[in-house]
Amino acid sequence: MKKRLVTFAFFVIAIFVVTAQEVKFEEIDLDNGLHVILHQDNSAPIVTVGFMVDVGGKDAGGDNNPERTGFAHFFEHLLASGGTKNIQKGEWYKLRASRGGQGNANTSLDRTYYYQSFPSNNLEFALWMDSERLLHPIIDKESVDTQNEIVKEEKRSSYDNRPYGQFLFVLGENLFKVHPYRFKNIGEMEHLDAASLEEFQAYFNKYYVPENMVAVVAGDIDIAETKKLVQKYYSEIPSGKKAIRNFPKEIPITESKRVKAYDANIQIPGIMAAYRTPGFKSREAYILNMVSAYLSDGKTSKLYKKIVDDKKMAIQAGALNINQKDYSIYAIFGLPSGDTTLDDLLIEIDEEITKMQNELISENDYQKLQNKFENRFVNSNASIEGIANSLVKYYLLYDDINLINNEINIYRSITREEIQDAVKKYLNPNQRVVLDYLPKTKEN
To answer: Using CA atoms, how far apart are residues 261 and 436, in angstroms rounded to an integer?
Structure first.
């Protein structure tokens, strides 16, 4: 009885916290087509400004050109650190730090996001900096050559020379045959080297227009004053056209495919079973997020506990749902220990999947999942930077900005039966690519 009361109390507290943290926001549209989201929180003297652009690694060369990959990631670097008409090359980080600011940028296959945080008395300065890189970026031969070298070094350190660094790239190339998700997000270096200056400039002019992005200002602000500042600094950005895409559709996978890849940076082989699943706006994507958490979120999760802790067959095992707009990737992986073979691991993985297909997960495990997603939801809105990111993400990618407050209701509504049905529908052996990721030797 005491345990039930504690569980009930925790549930009530969790609901109270989620409700109490409702994120309020205002939206405005500038005449040039830029949509701006404002969120006021005066609890700390911090402000985050940022913008998300509807361009990512799938937009190779602007026209699905397989010989021009990596452009979106290239511009992440150029606009995050390159010079502008009024900020000298190499001075961006120094200038920001001089005002107590920090920031970053990141690129996925679907979008590019830039953000900066400052003490709130530097709001106008932050908006000026962002307007500078959108209005007056320096895209000349020197800038292109400099950023190309930076990207090459990142590729060497983060992918080429990092153990298991090509894992996901190989999966993408095998799961997607016609859709540009088959491209590496960081791109091929020879593609960037071969591109002309005019191609880089055309890419910026096509995608970095107000109609193709959304801006956010969040934190210790006055809404009325911030609207004036947004108008002052962002209204001069030239308008353009919303990017229109018509990517080819993939044919469903109906037969299992097994491939091999070799990595000179590893000594322990790995295996990964990957499935092409629906895009992140679908209900199924949310359900598969729960499947992933059930299988491998923490050392008490089913897959980890069974294969790593109990049977000692692997040094690592897990599952992840790589959410993307058009198609997602659901992947289950393992690194064997001792005399365990990759086939042994695959059998154990399949047994756990088959069990989920044949039996409902327990009510206790289901409640644990609900609690995990309640906590994740609260934590995602626990900082100004997190709120800013969520606001632009839900607006630009999900077409529903109110998900910042309502997304948890989707998880709350998912049933055990839906979890079982999703596993039955999407995680079958004939719907996957199995990758043997092996140490590279002189023999291979």
So the answer is: 6
For residue 64, pLDDT over 60 is answered with yes
- High-pLDDT (> 90) share of the chain, %: 86
For residues 112 and 53, is the Cβ–Cβ distance under 8 A?
yes
Note the pTM of the prediction, 2 decimals: 0.92
- In three-state secondary structure terms, 276 is strand
Residues 345, 314: contact at Cβ < 8 Å? yes
Q: HEC states along 349-363?
A: HHHHHHHHHHCCCCH
| pLDDT single digits (tens) 118-129 | 999 999 999 999
Cα-based angle 236, 243, 47 (whole degrees, multiple of 5): 50
| Angstrom distance (rounded) from CA 36 to CA 27 | 6
pLDDT tens profile 173-220: 999 999 999 999 999 999 999 999 999 999 999 999 999 999 999 999
For residues 363 and 21, is the Cβ–Cβ distance under 8 A? Answer: no
Q: Quick one: pLDDT band at residue 5, thresholds 50, 70, 90?
A: very low
Of 137, 156, 128, which is closest to residue 204 (Cα–Cα)? 137
Rg (CA), the chain: 23
Burial state string for 137-157 with b = 16 or more CB within 10 A and e = fewer than 16: bbbeeebbebbbeebeeebee
pLDDT: is 443 or 398 the higher one? 398
CA distances from 52 to 294, 311, 383 (A): 31, 45, 18
Residue 59 neighbours by CB under 8 Å, 6+ apart: 71, 72, 180, 207, 243, 245
Locus of tokens 């009510």: 363
Q: What is the pLDDT of residue 2?
A: 37
Q: Which domains does the chain have, with CATH numbers?
A: 24-234 (3.30.830.10), 257-439 (3.30.830.10)
CB 189 within 8 A of CB 151: yes
Q: In angstroms, rounded to a whole number, what is the distance separating the alpha carbons of residues 277 and 320? A: 12
